[in-house]
Amino acid sequence: MKLAAIDIGSNAVRLQITKVLEYKEQVTFKKLEYVRFPLRLGHDVFTTGRISEYNKERFYKLLTAYKNLIDLYEIDAFFGCATSAIRESENGRALIEQVREGLGLDIKVISGEEEAEMINKVIGLSLGNGNYLHVDVGGGSTELNIYEGKKKILSRSFKLGSVRSLEHSDKPEMWEEMKQWIKINISNKYENICAIGTGGNINKLFELSTDGKTKEMNLDTLIATQKNLFKLTTNELLNKLQLNPDRADVIIPASEIYIEVMKSSGAKNIIVPDVGLKDGINFHMYESNYPTMNKVVVKN
């Protein structure tokens, strides 16, 4: 079985094509193709409330290219999701309808809660019996999910994100609301909680701050990495660290959210499993085809 997932985010639009390999009791998701294009729809939406004509045209061209790849790979199932930028845009749903009519790609505009649920499908596979706070920071929203062992017990989406912060569209009262939610639901209830971080920026922060031998880093290391990034010029971020331009300008705003969540919750460590919405979409498609499966799923 070959699956295709499209994730339309506020900072980038991603396509992942995956082959499902089944052997005995093990299922492996093997990545065949991954394309990420930095369209940054959030720049338009968080400043003007709508997607510009220029980016509407670029968006349609990009989805046309993705459709051609999907057809060439002769996939068996497709699922596409659009998140906060499209959700909040005055003309986002009209653009999605244009793609559906012109290209035959049916994209679903999902809520922050649905976005978190998709990602949680793959996060839950690797959890132990402890208490966890899953933090997913996107361009336009941050999703927080509380786990006791492998069971999710509470979640909340906040209008805080890397692109939203970059455009100065993050409101102080939303920061305070997030901190209060954490205090009520985590700080006052759990003595020990471990954070789990997803999103492109935490993956890059982890890569910059560790030797890659573990999937976990502590809060002090994350703070030190952020301080080192503050010292660098844009030119050094682009050339010395070889960050993409659309990563270089949002990585510090994103790090601020992860650090604040960890401080507020009392989490000393954060696990970085390197999975995201695209992986959750693929798992959702596979699960939909095999609703009674009892197999172990391994992401590759």
Could you characterize what this model shows?
The protein is α/β, with parallel strands linked by helices and 300 residues long. It folds into 2 domains: 2-112 and 277-299, ATPase, nucleotide binding domain (Nucleotidyltransferase, domain 5, 2-Layer Sandwich), CATH 3.30.420.40; 128-271, Nucleotidyltransferase, domain 5 (2-Layer Sandwich). The chain is 47% helix and 25% strand. The protein has helices at 41-48, 53-73, 84-88, 92-103, 112-123, 162-166, 172-187, 200-209, 219-231, 234-239, 245-248, 251-265, 277-289, and strands spanning 2-8, 13-23, 26-37, 77-82, 107-109, 131-137, 142-148, 151-158, 194-198, 216-218, 269-271, 296-299. The strands form 2 sheets. A 6-stranded mixed beta sheet has the order 5-4-1-2-3-12, with helices on both faces. A 6-stranded mixed beta sheet has the order 8-7-6-9-11-10, with helices on both faces. Strand 2 and strand 3 form a beta hairpin. The relative contact order is 0.17. The model has no long low-confidence stretch (mean pLDDT 90).
Which terms would index this structure?
300 residues; alpha/beta; Nucleotidyltransferase, domain 5; 6-stranded mixed β-sheet; 12 strands; 47% helix; globular
Q: What Rg, in angstroms, do the CA atoms define?
A: 19 Å
Largest beta sheet, briefly? 6 strands, mixed
- Please give the CATH architecture of the largest domain: 2-Layer Sandwich
Query: What's the assembly state of these chains?
Result: single chain
What is the CATH fold-level name of the largest domain?
Nucleotidyltransferase, domain 5
**Count of separate DSSP helical elements:** 13
